[in-house]
Amino acid sequence: MSEAKTAATRFREMFGALGIPVEIDILEQGPKKIELRIGKASPPTLGKFALPVARPPPPLLTSDTAPMFMTELQNQEVQDGYPVSFDCIVIGKPLPTVRWFKDGKAIEENDHYMINEDQEGCHQLIITAVVPTDMGVYRCLAENNMGVASTKAELRV
Asked: Which parts of the sequence belong to the Ig-like domain (predicted)?
């Protein structure tokens, strides 16, 4: 499978886990670059084939832009001892730096918290094994020289 198709599959799975059906078009593929257009899929009409909807391409960040969350954190409920993941996508130019907080206190990566990010703006906080003291409000804060944005969600155990 090509890198572009692998990336498209990864994004479909990520959005699917959030309950968001997406259509992904491969716009360009080079040795060090893959450009995808990701759009929300229209639900199919019963008894009919859904015609593709023409839509403008997503905004390309050609000038400096404050951070903006394309997907926000979702509230989670998980049983004691199970892992949980908070996921979001943020864009901005220059690429925003992201920090994670629990109840207003900064989270550092360790054996309990894993923090993942990629160059496309996908950010993830994984709690490897939830304990009751993990209950609270989690916030992802994105910042660049143009501004600040944040998204938050609650974890219930």
From this structure: 67-156
Long-range contacts of 145-149 (CB under 8 A, 24+ apart): 145/64, 145/94, 146/64, 146/65, 146/66, 146/67, 146/92, 146/93, 146/94, 147/66, 147/67, 147/92, 148/66, 148/67, 149/66, 149/67, 149/68, 149/69, 149/90, 149/92, 149/96
Please tell me whether residue 109 adopts helix, strand or coil conformation.
coil
Place of tokens 């998980």: 78
Determine the Cα–Cα distance for residues 30 and 74; give it in Å rounded to an integer: 34
Best CA proximity match to 143, nearest among 102, 94, 106: 94
Interatomic CA distance for residues 37 and 43, integer angstroms: 18
Query: What is the C-alpha to C-alpha distance for residues 32 and 124, in angstroms, rounded to an integer?
Result: 23
pLDDT by residue (tens digit) across 53-76? 444 444 566 688 999 999 999 999
* Structure-block tokens of residue 41: 């899929």
Domain 72-155 falls in which CATH fold? Immunoglobulin-like (2.60.40)
